[in-house]
Design a protein that fits this description.
two-stranded antiparallel ribbon; mainly alpha; Arp2/3 complex 21 kDa subunit ARPC3; 79% helix; globular
Length: 223
């Protein structure tokens, strides 16, 4: 077997593993009934990490597979839910990884995740306005009334929480995959005091995750 073929097989195995982990996160780590009909699940965290490693197109393929599995297992919203879930995951994963993958630095990761978060909020507002009246049988005016009290804060918190989790977990996941020789040994980085930058990002991300998770639990009526 050639080195190129071996590298490709390892990459496929790693993508399959990350996809399976995203499915597990989707099924078992859900926070349902946010605002009555919204659900948070952390699958996009794993999918974004996969896209950061392998690129936007593999990230979108993994997202589609996970959303299909979700539709066939835990989802009750059928094809409309599939469309909405894939749009949400695809926009966040795709925009974030397009910016980061061309030059893998911490600053580009942060910029990509911010851009992905803003894009997610904008796109999902548009598609909720289009699809929610069809799915729930309510007038569009009723959907507009949900923008400020529910849809904008939910999507903003969801995107920010996912972004913080990516920054918190990415380094550890990449290190583990390198040690297992599933991905190449080195990636480019920002230079400078890399260790200090990483510690700062981890601390800030951990605080953001804890805060945003508490807010989501309050929205869901758990706390």
């Amino acid at each position: 077997m050639t080195k190129k073929a071996n590298t490709r097989i390892k990459a496929l195995a790693c993508m399959a593993m990350l996809t399976a982990l995203a499915v597990v996160a989707d099924i078992f780590l859900r926070i349902p009934n946010i605002g009555g009909f919204l659900t948070y699940e952390p699958k996009d965290v794993i999918l974004t990490i996969g896209a950061f490693i392998f690129g936007p197109v593999p990230g979108l393929i993994m997202s589609l597979v996970v959303c299909l599995v979700e539709m066939l297992t835990v989802s009750t919203t059928g094809p409309i839910g599939l469309l909405m879930n894939f749009l949400a995951s695809g926009v966040f994963v795709g925009v974030s990884s397009v910016i980061y993958f061309r030059k893998k630095t911490m600053s580009r990761a942060i910029i990509g995740l911010v851009a992905g978060s803003v894009s997610l909020v904008a796109v999902m507002l548009l598609w909720n306005y289009i699809m929610t009246p069809i799915y729930m049988g309510v007038p569009r005016e009723a959907v507009l009334d949900l923008f400020v009290p529910l849809l904008i804060p939910f999507n903003a918190i969801k995107a920010a929480l996912n972004a913080a989790l990516v920054l918190l977990l990415y380094k550890g996941v990449v290190t583990a995959l390198r040690k297992s020789r599933l991905i190449p040994a080195r990636e480019s980085n920002d230079g400078g005091n890399k260790k200090t930058n990483t510690i700062i990002v981890v601390i800030v991300s951990a605080l953001a995750v804890a805060t945003l998770l508490l807010v989501l639990l309050i929205f869901a009526g758990v706390l």
